[in-house]
Amino acid sequence: MSRYVGLDRPKGPGYFLFWKAVFVAMLLGFISFVYYASSAVEYVWRWERVPQYFWLKEDVDVRAEAEGELVAVRKEAGAVVLVIASAGHEYVRSLPGDSELRVAQGDYVYMGDSIAEYHHSKPGVLLEGMWITLKVSMLAIVFGIVLGVATGLCRISVNPALRWTAIVYIELIRGSPLLVQIFLWYFVAGTLINGILQSVGLGAMPPLWYGVMALAIFTGAYVAEIVRAGIQSVHRGQMEAARSLGLGYGQAMRRIILPQAFRRILPPLAGQFISLVKDSSLLGVIAVRELTKSTREVVSSSLQPFELWILCAVLYLVLTFTLSLLIQQLERRALR
């Protein structure tokens, strides 16, 4: 809620114009500082090379894998099929329909000859890393909300087993570094779980899911405390009134208490989820190729650290700002 200004003297248009000008001046000052700081660094900026890491376009040169006569060139369902006959055998090669052929039917080709070329495009390394970051974060947020709400309810339960279990979980998770938890989930729990899965004929679980588990459990502990605080902020009379109307504890909690608490906890939840998106950068230590790990790989091969790390920060900003806008939209809808 913004500060109440009903008792203050009304502000004239000059007041708002002045402080808007101050804001624009500070913004221009910051941009000028960044510009002059980047100019002072003895570094050759090569921004023109960055787009290839978003969307990769390449020309693929197709080479013959067998020696012989090209006996057939057919077009089938958007593809071009080449048939090379050699010593009584036929080698079939299927190419995209827009391939440019460099040989004709009846030509004799040798192994390694260039026979066609086609254009290929696909998402670049940074775009793939951004998608992995988004996927891991969204999955961890969903599981974290479920775990956090359940733990928050257990935290205020009168049942000692549920309450003490919730307290131990929250204190244990909040009191240890996330990086250590990721290591333990992947190298300790992961070894045991993968061994069990393989013993029953199932394959090993990908590292991405251990990362999701670590992030979800880490976030669930913080969400639990946010949920507990939100529930306890609703006046006790609300529960007493609901129970006096004949509602059970579960019904009163679901229909009366939680909707009010939900509106109050949205701002701290937004901060927690934004933090989770940035925390996903730690998953590179268990070989999850999220945005930070992808950027680190590209920096190693391109030797363009400043452009790529600045771009990495901008991409995280896009993700977190979008998430913040979505939660603000939820807040406005909840206040209607």
Structure description:
With 336 residues, this protein is an alpha+beta fold. It has two domains: 58-123, Beta Barrel (OB fold (Dihydrolipoamide Acetyltransferase, E2P)), CATH 2.40.50.100; 125-335, MetI-like (MetI-like fold), CATH 1.10.3720. It has helices spanning 13-40, 125-155, 160-174, 178-199, 207-233, 236-244, 249-279, 291-302, 305-334, and strands spanning 55-63, 68-76, 79-86, 89-96, 100-101, 108-109, 114-123. The protein has a four-stranded antiparallel β-sheet with strand order 4-3-2-6, with no helix packed on it. Strand 3 and strand 4 form a beta hairpin. Helix 4 (178-199) packs across helix 5 (207-233) and helix 8 packs antiparallel against helix 9. The longest helix is centred in the middle third of the chain and has 31 residues, at 125-155. It is extended. The model has no long low-confidence stretch (mean pLDDT 88).
Biggest sheet strand order reads 4-3-2-6
> Helical proportion?
55-70%
Q: What count of domains describes the coordinates?
A: 2
**Uncertain segments of ≥5 residues (pLDDT<50)?**
none
| Count of helix runs | 9
- Proportion of β residues? 5-15%
Subcellular location: Cell inner membrane; Cell membrane
InterPro entries: AA_ABC_transptr_permease_3TM, ArtM/GltK/GlnP/TcyL/YhdX-like, MetI-like, MetI-like_sf
Membrane topology: Multi-pass membrane protein
Protein name: Putative glutamine transport system permease protein GlnP
